[in-house]
């Protein structure tokens, strides 16, 4: 049975700044993700705080929100069979130094903060995150 899902992907400020957006979008295409919608936005810190609300209690929350709102980002709705899990596999571990060879974070990530891409971690969160950026 097919299980087409949608997930939210973000190309973070470090990657946009290094002009890697097209290269990263190509990686999604090569891996058979359909980019259903995309836009380039610059968040206010208060938007980033809302987006990363689940991490509110973490020691890195403030820096994380400052970082996500530090420059333009590209947000996309990706669609594929098992898109949530497939995107997480393609991204690799959160910390680029621990990510497997060939993954996006291994290829492009600079550090655990500047790890180039974000992807929803569950189908439920994907719905919430897609709604956050594309509820117009
Ligand atoms: P992301 O998938 O966007 O979700 C939350 C982000 O917090 C994560 O990627 C990392 O870039 C960032 N982060 C910073 N420090 C940590 C940490 N110690 N553990 C997990 N995530 C961290």
State the domain count.
1
CATH level 1 class label: Alpha Beta
Please count the helical segments: 7
Describe the largest sheet. 4 strands, antiparallel
Q: How would you state the average pLDDT, rounded?
A: 97
* Total number of beta strands: 4
Helix content: 40-55%
CATH fold description: Alpha-Beta Plaits
Question: How would you sum up the global shape?
Answer: globular
The sequence of SSEs as H and E is: EHHEHHEHHEH
Quickly give the structural class.
alpha+beta
**CATH homology superfamily:** Nucleoside diphosphate kinase-like domain
CATH architecture call: 2-Layer Sandwich
* Beta strand %: 15-25%
Spatial strand sequence of the major β-sheet: 2-3-1-4
What low-confidence regions span 5 or more consecutive residues with pLDDT below 50?
none
Rounded to the nearest angstrom, the distance between the terminal CA atoms is 32 Å
Short description:
With 136 residues, the protein is α+β, with helices and mostly antiparallel strands.
Question: How does this model look, in words?
Answer:
With 136 residues, this protein is α+β, with helices and mostly antiparallel strands. It has seven helices and four strands, in the order βααβααβααβα. It has a four-stranded antiparallel sheet, sandwiched between helices. The model has no long low-confidence stretch (mean pLDDT 97). The structure holds adenosine-3',5'-cyclic-monophosphate. Adenosine-3',5'-cyclic-monophosphate binds next to loops.
Question: How does the SSE layout of this entry go?
Answer:
Layout lengths: L3 E8 L1 H5 L3 H10 L3 E8 L3 H7 L9 H8 L4 E9 L1 H9 L12 H5 L8 E3 L3 H12 L2
Antiparallel strand pairs: 1-3, 1-4, 2-3
Helix pairs in contact: 3-4
The chain binds adenosine-3',5'-cyclic-monophosphate (CMP).
